Amino acid sequence: MGTAVFESVAALFGGCVGSFLNVVIHRLQFDDPQRRSLGGRSHCPHCGALIRWFDNVPVLSWVLLRARGRCCKRPIAMRYPLVELLTAGLFGALAHWSPFAGALTADASGQAMGIAVAGLVLQAVFLSLLVALSFIDFDTQLLPDVLTKPGIAIGLLGGLWPGVAGSISQDDSTSLALRTLLASLAGFVVGGGFTWLIRAVGSKVFGREAMGFGDVKLMAMVGAFLGWQAALLTMFLGCVIGAVVGGLGAALGRGTVIPFGPYLALGAVVSLFLREPILTLVFSTWPEWQRRNPSSQWLLLAFASGSLLLLFFVVRRGRRPS
């Protein structure tokens, strides 16, 4: 299969997955266990009528129906095609950039092909979880265990085979399966443990909860999938993005409730696709520049500390009783 065709098919499949994620996002926001069930046909959220299959085609149905339900003519939120387009774009990017996808489009052996398929599926599951968790967090400021805990388990299993988190070392005297599993376990411990530490310190400093425990479980999941280096990179990017966006929103008076999950998810997506060039910049190019400019390390420290303090300030404002 050609690369362009493969990427197009992946994007189309991503749109279909995005349609299912809309169901997940909608139903997991309810406290009633019966309403939270993911089984059964889709219903109109306004009048409860069954949605027919030709009204459930990703993006296209929303356009043809002019953003209104056929059954009751009530508006269909822009979020639905947005989730479908976002998931389609992420799956297309995965087909283009993932090393597992590269093996699928090359003339690989049967064993290598199996590893590539498994790795690509696991990464697609990871991206799907990030999309669902982000939109749920935007709506409810919660990251449900029903997604994060299975995500952690899937990430750890993917570390055992086919090694989605990479290898913790290049020591050939140890089996590859053990090295990849250790990479996933290290990511789980570092991602969850470091986030828990930040949460504990922030809560102590501000005298109230600085971030939810759902963020800890989300970062444990990210680490299980991506490894410890990408987990730290995700946390750094999430703090920077959250501080900038949340600070601007607070300054413009656009609300003070700041869900941290979407910013961590965005950082995880960047880490998934751009981990190697960023890590090369951080651990190779940047240290070399630092050796030529010794004072530069203080610039990075000040930037990271300022971003984290600004984020804590914004989150604290968002959790202040009204």
Name its key features:
322 residues; mainly alpha
What does this structure look like?
- 70% of the residues lie in helices and 0% in strands.
- The protein has 322 residues and is an all-alpha fold.
- It folds into 2 domains: 1-140, no CATH class; 142-322, no CATH class.
- α1 runs antiparallel to α3 (79-97) and α6 (145-160) runs parallel beside α8.
- The protein is globular, with a radius of gyration of 21 Å.
Number of domains: 2
First-to-last CA distance:
57 Å
Helix tally equals 11
Amount of beta strand: under 5%
CA-based shape = globular
Structural class category: mainly alpha
Helix coverage percent: over 70%
The major β-sheet equals: none
Write down the overall mean pLDDT: 86
Number of strands: 0
Global Rg: 21 Å
* Spans where pLDDT lies below 50 across 5 or more residues: none
Compressed to H and E, one letter per element, the order equals HHHHHHHHHHH
Question: What's the structural blueprint in terms of helices and strands?
Answer:
Layout: H1 3-27, H2 60-64, H3 79-97, H4 99-104, H5 110-140, H6 145-160, H7 176-206, H8 213-226, H9 228-251, H10 261-292, H11 296-318
Helix pairs in contact: 1-3, 1-5, 3-5, 5-6, 5-10, 6-7, 6-8, 7-8, 7-9, 8-9, 8-10, 9-10, 9-11
What's the short story on this structure?
With 322 residues, this protein is mainly alpha-helical. The protein has helices at residues 3-27, 60-64, 79-97, 99-104, 110-140, 145-160, 176-206, 213-226, 228-251, 261-292, 296-318.
